[in-house]
Amino acid sequence: MSGRILIRNARVFDASGADAYPADVLVEGNRIRAVATDLGTIDAIGADVIDGTGHTLMPGMVEGHSHPTFTGVSEPAQLGEIPPEEHLLMTIKNTRVMLDHGFTSLFEAASAKLRLGVVTRNAINAGDFIGPRMRAASPEITTTAGLGDERRVHLYRESFALIADGVDEMRKVARLCMREGVDNLKINVSGDDFVTHAKASITPMSRAEITTAVEVGHEFGKMLVAHSRSAESVKRCVEAGVDCIYHCDQSDAEALDMLERNKHKHFVGPAFGLLYNLMYEHEKIGISKDWLIARGFDKAFDVSCETYHQMRKRGIRVVIGGDYGFAFTPQGQNARDISHFVRFFGYTPNEALQCATRVGADLMGMKSELGQVREGFLADLLLVKGDVLADVTLLADKDKIAMVMTDGRLWKDPRRTIARERLPIAAE
Ligand SMILES: [Zn+2]
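Above: query sequence and zinc ion SMILES. Below: predicted holo structure tokens.
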């Protein structure tokens, strides 16, 4: 490889907010060197040339709520039963699945075991294998009776989540996660409708516990991320300064006002794939419509749509990522979120694509060098067959993604007859 790659004649979606335009893009090393119409033959000297005719060139996508450690289980407790050795291999495989599907950055929303995300990130950063950029998460930290407390009184069993009750325990657990090297500290602030005793409207984690987690995480320069469905949980998270607040579906006017007033501080993510697949594809996993209605998932779906119309109108930073990794939300479907944003939340295709790229890069803490096709930015790029602004569903089809470039390296090269994705794990 020459270290210089020229992609010619593509339509460039640069994620700045502008419409797509025809241009050539020159990559040198791991950076975008030039974006211009008709970069001349001088620029092509010594460069690998890729013909982008009929394709959209765009930034690599950012998965803003990713779970590479989620292995297609039907319920979270099963994650605890997988031995760490197998679990690590599955995690690495999932990062590759997401890279194949155009995700060049993963913001991990929770790791199923404390060190899985951390060691995967470290191996990618060390160049041991090619993978997406990663911010590694802690396991879900919850309270007794919170989402993720899978223990039983009659049976000795640890939970895959870390349990912390009270300020002292929270401080200790959060510090443990710091010592082990996480980037994102995940707290389960509200319950969830899957949990019999702690529904989505319940907020088991106290203000003091949330504040303690934030204090420890921020002291170490890390981000706080929260599972927050109830309006009360959103308010507590905003007050405490949680950086990324997931779901937020039951936000009332007061919670939305608080988010809007502090929108430069917070990101939100609906993780809507979970609800969409439950409502539209439940039959595939043997769940009946009656079962869903009895648990209020139909209402939760409508409430979520209404909430995210509000988030969009209020200019709150929203990232894609749909809680993929369960049996009914397989890894690789992640880019479906973009069309969900358009279809259910009222985003234009351009805006939804920005959520998947530029806003995601902001969440990664890299907005000044990632998430746009722009001179000087990092060369995480996709070449997609067709016009993604005319049809955002193209991105959910891996076969339409002709090129995946991560940090200037071609993971998927449109000129190869055997796709890289079919080869075993190999370092460049
Ligand atoms: Zn999640």
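The mean pLDDT is 94.
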